[in-house]
Amino acid sequence: MQKQLALHQEQSPVEVYRSQRMSKEEWNQLSKATGQCISMNSFVSTSLERNVAKFYKTGANHDDNEIGIMFHIKANPCLSGDLIQPFANIVCFSEFPDEKEIVFMAGSIFRIIKIIDENPFPIVEIELFSKEENDLKMLFESLRREFGGLPGGELKKTSIHSLGNFASRMIKFDVADRFFRRSYYESSKDDPNPADYCQNIGMAALHTGRYEESVRWLDQALKLYESRGLVDDPCVASLYIAQGILNTKKKKRKQVLDSYNKALKIYQTSSGEHDSDIALCYHNMANLFERRK
């Protein structure tokens, strides 16, 4: 069955629906799991039509000890290639093509985005999650419990960003990029960190050779820092260092020197311990002049 689903794998992102009844005890656990991942132990039948999924829920016999819910599922087939279980549109094989059925392979992993308390039943929004992302999340949660940090439970945006930093340290820049982008696109208007998200997206692009994309994200980060009045902050100096490295890759020597000088000026006038940062600036500039010989 897995080979058949893989053969007919959807090629574009989809949004599908699935109605389901579960015990009140199961619902109590699920309702507190926003941000966490769940694994489906069996094949998951869904429909592109919300009303079809709703029909199956309302048409079932009710048990007073159960509650009906609706899963709203978002799935992107481009997530980490082979690291997601396949899902496919089986309309052409179904006896009921009007149901527009899409089936997910057993073992599919989903992240709970949010739970909406609607009438007559709650909506649980979930998204397909890659095995690699889930493995990183589980490892990060283990480290967080061991060394402290945010309490276990809801995976907040700050920890999603931390997952990106963690993936970067593991040299998994493609994975880090997805976490940084999620942090950026899901951030609220009062989130103080969008410049950090942009800078890290730019760095991930730099490390994966996407230089023009890196330029755009680093420039966006600088604009956001400046809008917050952080023109002389060490975080801006680190951005100038990143721009210096980027311009080195693009062989723009004048811009390289300009970036390092800006970073050096900020570090020299900032409070705190920046000796290693200042040394890095001088080292990078010395390398630049050495290459000119």
Your description of this structure?
This protein has 2 domains: 2-130, Toxin ADP-ribosyltransferase, Chain A, domain 1 (Alpha-Beta Complex), CATH 3.90.176; 134-292, Alpha Horseshoe (Serine Threonine Protein Phosphatase 5, Tetratricopeptide repeat). Helices cover 50% and strands 17% of the residues. It is built from 11 helices and 8 strands. It has a 5-stranded mixed β-sheet with strand order 1-4-8-7-2. Strand 7 (109-116) and strand 8 form a beta hairpin. Helix 7 (194-207) packs antiparallel against helix 8, helix 9 packs antiparallel against helix 10 and helix 10 packs antiparallel against helix 11 (275-292). The model is unreliable at 146-158 (pLDDT under 50).
